[in-house]
Amino acid sequence: MANISSLSLQNPSQPKFTGDSSIMASAIDLYSACDDAIPTIDYSLLFSNDPHQRSLALEYLGQACHHYGFFNLVNHGIPDKLLDNFFHGISEFFDPMMLDERRALYSKKDAMDRIRWVLRSSSGENREYLKVISHPNYHFPPNPSCFSEVLGEYHKEMRKIVVGLARAVSINLGFEEDYIEKAFNLKSGFDVSAMILYPPNHISKGEMGLPEHTDPGFIVTLVQNVDGGLQILSHHGKWINVQIPPHAILIQLGDHLEILTNGKYKSHIHRVVVAKNEVERISVATLHGPSLEKSVRPAPEFVDETHPQAYLGMTYKQCLEANGDDEIESQSSLHLIKLPNIN
Ligand SMILES: O=C(O)CCC(=O)C(=O)O
Ligand SMILES: [Fe+2]
């Protein structure tokens, strides 16, 4: 049965750097966070043939979206082996022996680059990543061999889950199951996937892997090969060390679900803290967005006298470019879209 609170979130088989390690002592001082459990949703139960189980699972999902804005997804159907192969391929990509060649190949040359390698190495951000557009068209590097095949398979499976979640969330919000798919035109949804290495090339210039931010889009899916480092600021103002069970997927609500629901389901601030070069972590964060041309504004069903319209309407492309970034390097523009509170 779906359970949002009682599943063990510990992962004894993976190395950790969150918690009591002396390596992390100074980072913990600066970026202390608690180890509160986060909700876990059983994806398979959202589609159970047993109506009672299904409605319970949907209710848990609604609570997780409303009160947290993020949750671990288990029994999602992506085979463990595929996830393991995926991480193996990414490790190979970041192989230090090959990296100079690949860096040169995929360093930004043009705003239209659909595959891009980026290094951030400063006191405020320490990571390197390969970003690709994974939908509506696939753009995957041909090397190392088999990498693009595994990447393609991973993203195909992940999109099925994203569409499934769009249906479940639509029902939760009291709509037909295709409501979100239509509101975001998900069939042509714009997905950007970042395969991230912390710290970059084993060398970090500070304790911050990725500074505080929220993400644009419908949802963000995140998988990782080592537990620890990601911290989320809860809606109650508490920093939480996010622990993801092996092979589970962390789902985070994006800014555009917040806009569509006029703030009922909110995105949340998160950041990544890195150890001092001792632990290497790979994560894959994919922003699943509306189609670029889709204008997203609060749906009329969420706007009334007590809940006045809190966000401007804008196309997804305008939102992604609002900070002066190109589509692939986009950051949240929620602060530009949010209307002053008129209550
Ligand atoms: O690597 C992580 O754990 C988080 C990545 C992230 O938040 C992002 O890429 O937007
Ligand atoms: Fe993020």
UniProtKB/TrEMBL annotation:
InterPro entries according to UniProt: DIOX_N (IPR026992), IPNS-like_FE2OG_OXY (IPR044861), IPNS-like_sf (IPR027443), Oxoglu/Fe-dep_dioxygenase_dom (IPR005123), Plant_2OG-oxidoreductases (IPR050295)
UniProt GO molecular function: dioxygenase activity; L-ascorbic acid binding; metal ion binding
Superkingdom of the organism of origin: Eukaryota
Keyword Nucleotide-binding: no
Ranges for domain Fe2OG dioxygenase: 189-290
Signal sequence region: none
Keyword Translocase attributed: no
Keywords: Dioxygenase, Iron, Metal-binding, Oxidoreductase, Vitamin C
PANTHER family recorded: OXOGLUTARATE/IRON-DEPENDENT DIOXYGENASE (PTHR47991)
Family recorded in the similarity comment: Belongs to the iron/ascorbate-dependent oxidoreductase family.
Protein name from the UniProt record: Flavanone 3-dioxygenase 3-like
UniProt organism field: Senna tora
Lineage of the species this protein comes from: Eukaryota, Viridiplantae, Streptophyta, Embryophyta, Tracheophyta
